[in-house]
Write a structure and sequence with these properties.
The chain is about 45% helix and about 15% strand. It folds into two domains: about 140 residues, HAD superfamily/HAD-like (Rossmann fold, 3-Layer(aba) Sandwich); about 60 residues. By secondary structure, the chain is α/β, with parallel strands linked by helices. This is HAD superfamily hydrolase.
Length: about 210
């Protein structure tokens, strides 16, 4: 079965519009005070792995539990209040499935945050598979989440396409042997060298996706 595998943050919803600002203003000052962390360094990572990255590369001032508490508070604000669904995504999802293309959601976010998004935007039960980094051993950029999604969809990598907005996510798709479209819907933070093409905006993404299955 052919499949399209969507990243969530920055693709299905415009949450990446808000993460860098809130991380810089309310997360990093407490977790790594007085240190200059570029939010793009951790874009696409699972929030627990972000703590590991910060602990390895900076001087952290809080324990893991406090980091998780801070991150969860920001996430619920972003997913529950601030973010918006990609224009036309509901129709895109329906049209892909009507053509016999399975659709998966493959994200670094934990299940509790995914549920907030699915419920808020009426997407509960709409995806053929939903895979969180917390369902596998290692999150992006490792390929585990994509391999798990392929398994759940009974799809082979050569008939699947991933849509990612970060280099971290694109590297995960590549490592799983999946073609990847880079989506520049919210920002241009993806390395064009690691994707098959970069598309800007919902309409161009829609066109590019259907072209993949012609």
């Amino acid at each position: 079965m052919p499949a399209v595998l969507f990243d969530m943050d920055g693709v299905v919803i415009d949450s990446e519009r808000y993460w860098p600002e809130l991380e810089s203003e309310r997360l990093f000052p407490e977790v790594v005070p007085g240190q200059d962390v570029d939010p793009e360094e951790v874009m696409g990572m699972n929030y627990r792995e972000i703590y590991d990255y910060l602990a390895e590369n900076y001087e952290v001032a809080v324990d893991r539990d406090r980091h998780v508490e801070l991150f969860d508070k920001l996430a619920r604000e972003i997913y529950g209040e601030r973010s918006s669904l990609m224009d036309g995504f509901d129709d895109l999802l329906s049209d892909l499935q009507a053509r016999g293309i399975a659709v998966g959601l493959v994200t670094s976010s934990p299940p509790a945050w995914i549920d907030v998004v699915l419920e808020r935007f009426g997407l509960t039960g709409r995806f053929d598979a939903v895979v969180s980094a917390e369902n596998v051993q290692s999150g992006k950029p490792e390929p585990d989440v994509y391999r798990r999604a392929l398994q759940e969809l009974d799809a082979e990598p050569d008939v699947a396409v991933a849509v990612e907005d970060s280099t971290t996510g694109a590297n995960a798709a590549n490592a799983a042997g999946i073609r990847c479209l880079g989506y520049a819907g919210v920002h241009d933070g993806i390395d064009p060298e690691v994707v098959d093409a970069v598309v800007s905006g919902p309409e161009r993404l829609r066109t590019a996706l259907f072209e993949q299955f012609e």
